[in-house]
């Protein structure tokens, strides 16, 4: 009986040792799994950080394809998004000059930005000049009425304004932050002023000459020539 009890106790002690060993291994495995999960999360975060930074370089080709696409137009709804991304990529690379080949990518991104801004300038100049030529071609049909002059000089430009408003709004928003946009804005304004001067100068000059002639006629009718000719100043007072 005692031998059986001793054997049973020994078996219990052996089972307890094995249970303790299994518990220790299970705990170690659990801790190892938690460590692996933590490392995986850290690696995932690190990979996302690398991927987010790498996107500023990998998008170079994608943006270039969009700019070179046959259907590309600065009037499209996607154009502001493209400008935003170009600005973001340029700003990021300029703030990280220590990255490998950053100077190469910066130069290529600026080339793409220059191409995008050139498309804005070309469309603006083409629209303004086309509108000016359209007005000049119809001026010979004018009957001299104010309504007709207004329709020619301002109405057609109002009709073209929606095509350019969104583009110039995007340029104005960025002009304070980038000299490229400032130069573009100045060039567009100079083109607009030049075309408006070319269109309005003859009409303004003719109107001023007509007003001058009209005022001279009114003055002549109010003051007869013989009154001016026969007028003699009074003698000076004697002291």
Automatic annotation (TrEMBL):
<dbReference type="Pfam" id="PF20671">
    <property type="entry name" value="COG3_C"/>
</dbReference>
<feature type="domain" description="Conserved oligomeric Golgi complex subunit 3 N-terminal">
    <location>
        <begin position="1"/>
        <end position="129"/>
    </location>
</feature>
<keyword id="KW-0813">Transport</keyword>
<protein>
    <recommendedName>
        <fullName>Conserved oligomeric Golgi complex subunit 3</fullName>
    </recommendedName>
</protein>
<keyword id="KW-0653">Protein transport</keyword>
<dbReference type="GO" id="GO:0006886">
    <property type="term" value="P:intracellular protein transport"/>
</dbReference>
<keyword id="KW-0472">Membrane</keyword>
<dbReference type="GO" id="GO:0000139">
    <property type="term" value="C:Golgi membrane"/>
</dbReference>
<dbReference type="InterPro" id="IPR007265">
    <property type="entry name" value="COG_su3"/>
</dbReference>
<keyword id="KW-0333">Golgi apparatus</keyword>
<comment type="similarity">
    <text>Belongs to the COG3 family.</text>
</comment>
<dbReference type="Pfam" id="PF04136">
    <property type="entry name" value="COG3_N"/>
</dbReference>
<feature type="domain" description="Conserved oligomeric Golgi complex subunit 3 C-terminal">
    <location>
        <begin position="152"/>
        <end position="222"/>
    </location>
</feature>
<dbReference type="InterPro" id="IPR048685">
    <property type="entry name" value="COG3_C"/>
</dbReference>
<dbReference type="InterPro" id="IPR048320">
    <property type="entry name" value="COG3_N"/>
</dbReference>
<dbReference type="GO" id="GO:0006891">
    <property type="term" value="P:intra-Golgi vesicle-mediated transport"/>
</dbReference>
<dbReference type="GO" id="GO:0017119">
    <property type="term" value="C:Golgi transport complex"/>
</dbReference>
<dbReference type="GO" id="GO:0005801">
    <property type="term" value="C:cis-Golgi network"/>
</dbReference>
<dbReference type="GO" id="GO:0007030">
    <property type="term" value="P:Golgi organization"/>
</dbReference>
